[in-house]
Design a protein that fits this description.
- The chain is α+β, with helices and mostly antiparallel strands.
- The protein folds into three domains: about 130 residues, Periplasmic binding protein-like II (D-Maltodextrin-Binding Protein, domain 2, 3-Layer(aba) Sandwich), CATH 3.40.190.10; about 110 residues, Alpha-Beta Complex (Dipeptide-binding Protein, domain 1), CATH 3.90.76; about 200 residues, Roll (Dipeptide-binding Protein, domain 3), CATH 3.10.105.
- The protein is about 25% helix and about 25% strand.
- The protein has twelve helices and 21 strands.
- The strands form six sheets. Strands 13, 14, 15, 16, 17, 18 and 19 form a seven-stranded mixed sheet that branches. The protein has a four-stranded mixed sheet with strand order 3-12-11-10, with no helix packed on it.
- α6 runs antiparallel to α8.
Length: about 500
Amino acid sequence: MLRLLKLSATALALAAGGAVAQDSIVVGMQLEPPNLDPTGGAAAAIDEVVYANIFEGLTRYQSDGSIAPALAESWEVSDDGTVYTFKLRQGVRFHDGTDMTAEDVKFSLDRARAEESTNAQKALFAGISDVTVVDDHTVQVTLSAPNGGFITNMAWGDAVIVAPESVENAATSPVGTGPFKFGRWVQGDRIEIEANPDYWGDKPALMSATFKFISDPAAAFNAMMAGDIDAFPGYPAPETLIQFEADPRFQLLIGSTEGETILSTNNKAEYLSDVNVRKAIAHAINRQEIIDGAMFGYGTPIGTHFAPHNPDYVDLTGQSAHDPEMARQLLAEAGAENLTLTLKLPPPSYARRGGEIIAAQLREVGIETEISNLEWAQWLEQVFKGKDYDLTIVSHTEPMDINIYARPDYYFQYDNPDFQQLMTDLDLASDPAARSEILAEAQRMIADDYVNGFLFQLARTGVANAKIQGLWANAPTQANDLTGVSWAE
């Protein structure tokens, strides 16, 4: 049925006796977003649809991980580092035709930092003490203290600019300023977007795009092979990549992501509040076995919550090397032999497949697990919000997010005042060398505390029609940015 909704991805449509360039694309996604409001939801799948396509922020991530101007064409920073004056682009309109002005920026930032805010990354805005409208195209943001990462914070999907007239319906009918407008959402199947003819910037080459949800890896393979899907940037069946590599109809998009894949641990759960039990779990894990078995070799081992491609990364994998005998000894010393823990797994392949492997590894040292396979909405409700779990597996795909360990109420409930002070020091530091030193100490601290089981950095394993150009190979943020995507003629 999908072929009736788009131009075929495997052949050029013919019209008026000649070839017509394709201007639509069907993008596969394993997870359907729970809603489409990036300022009110934690699921990465939200940004994968709307980031840079429908919604824009003051700044934005580019494919190489650098930060570029977006709705703010420029900015100035006061000598003391606490006042940011943003000059906004003129002629920007929301998709409903209303003008985007400094009032909308103030509304968005005030809403995100408000006490009743439901923003999943509310900490990004905690340092803002005031937002002042200077004129329609100038807004001044005052921080309570200098923050060397503030411009990067404004590039997150959680910091996009929304309008008070339309934000209440953003979950189901998002209205942004981006190069694409929301079309329709067929629940359980697809989301359609279309080019915004009134876009302020360079117009996209695509006139329309469809995000098609396929959770089953085998179905994803069949859809790609049949040409029903043009591109699958987060392809869920890495074991079949070799077949696409050998087929000239396709191209592989292999890169890195910001996704630290971890065995998340409830640090306040019975037994797991003991660092020696957490340490035992860490030594029970064989990372390479998980990478080979769940990801078919794609992934980089990590020993802390930091991306290996970051220049400030510290390799701490040896600190939690696979050592079943040490794990058994630690459990015995902690009085935690014959332990049974819950292991609640979200839908992604790395979690479901990795969970089975980790369960076997834990069983080897005397820890049994009760596995529950949850749908994404259930995982968000039970684990992320409710903290009703012992262990889970998830990839944290937000960029540079080690600061989540400074939030005592975050779902793995790590409460360390020393770490919280480190993150405060990081915000205040502007000297690159000082920031690097703080980041190294932060990595070691959470590794020393065995807060979570640090597994691997998620690889970006994508497949696309060979004629598509402009797709991101790497994922510096959780996005399927279609602004520069086109079909080769």
